[in-house]
Amino acid sequence: MRTAAGHRDSLGERTAAIQRISGPPPLTARQHSGAGADGRRAATRRDGAPRGPGGGMMDGRGLADGGRAARAEGAGPMNRWLWIGAGGAVAAVAAAVLAADRAGRRLPVEHVTEGGLELAQPPGAVWQVLTDIDLYPAWRPGLTHVERLPAAAGGRARWREYDRHGHTTYEVVASEAPHRLVTGIADPDLPYGGTWTYELTPAGRGCSLTVTERGEVRRPVYRAVSHYLTGEDATVHRYLGALAHRLAG
Hints:
single chain; seven-stranded antiparallel beta sheet; 49% helix
C-alpha cells in the first residue's frame, strides 16, 4: 500500500516531468501581487516586451535612441551614394560640354542658309507685314513684345525683341521697298550674330519670297548645338512657317 509520502513523491515526480515538457507553471495572482519589482519584471518579460543589452526592459527613451542610431547608421551609406551620384552627373555634364566644344571648333564660324515661300499676295502687301515691327508679337511664336529704339544713322529703324530667353537688338541694314529688306543683329556682345535678307519677286498676282540667313556663331559650344541639334536653318523655317500662317489668315 502506497503511503501519503510515497503518493507525494510520485505526484512530485509526475509534476516535475510535466514541467520539463511544458515549462514552468504560470504565476498565480498572489505571486503577481506579492512578487514586488522582480515579479513585475519577470511577468513583463513573459509577454515579449523588448529587452535592453543587459536583459532588462527598454523604455521609450531607449527605443527612440536606438531608432536614431539606426537611422544615423543607415544615412551614412545613403549620403555617400547621393554624393557619388551627384559627382557622376557633374562629370557627365562636363564631359558633354567638353565634347561639344571640341566638335564646335571643327565647324566654321559663319554659315549661310535660306528658304522660300510662294505667296498669293503681291509684294507690297507682304512688305507691309515684314516691316510692321509693332505687330511682330501678334504672329511670331515666342515673341512677347517689341520695344522701338532710337533710329540708327541715316534714320534706319532699330528695335529690341523680347522672348522667354531675354532680348536681342536688331536694326535695318538696307531697305529697297517693296522688293529687298536686310535686317541684322545690332549687339556685338552676343555669342552669335548675322543678317537676314528678304527678297520679294512678283509672280502672277502674288509673289515669291526668299529669306537668306548669313549667320555667325562665335562660341564653339553654340556652333555644335546649332549644327548638330537645332539645325542652322531652324530660324529661317520657323519664321517662314509663322509668316505663311499670318498671310493665310
